[in-house]
Specification:
Blueprint lengths: L4 E8 L2 E14 L13 E5 L6 E4 L2 H16 L4 H12 L4
Antiparallel strand pairs: 1-2, 2-3, 3-4
């Protein structure tokens, strides 16, 4: 499929600080639908942001889901989580 480009506004605390255009690769899911399983028709990944992956039944749904996935991946890590990570590292013996 074509690699659509779309724009995401990165925000911190609701303030837009950067506007970027990202490339997503959309793939058709070839998996067989089994009864009782919800397999989406398409899946996509952002080329520039590893881990920004989503799925959907339509291309429009993929674009909406991918925008959300990118925004989540670009959110800063909360201070509380960084402190927890540092304190757990102090207890590890190598």
């Amino acid at each position: 499929m074509n690699n659509p480009l779309f724009t995401v506004y990165n925000k911190i605390r609701g303030v837009v600080f950067m506007k970027r255009t990202y490339t997503i690769a959309i793939h058709e899911n070839k998996e067989e639908l089994e009864e009782g399983h919800n397999v989406k028709k398409y899946w996509a990944q952002c080329i520039e942001i590893p881990g920004a992956i989503t799925s959907g039944d339509t291309i429009e749904e993929i674009k909406e889901n991918m925008k959300e996935a990118i925004e989540l991946m670009l959110q800063p890590i909360p201070e509380e989580l960084l402190k927890e990570e540092k304190s757990s590292d102090e207890n590890v013996t190598y």
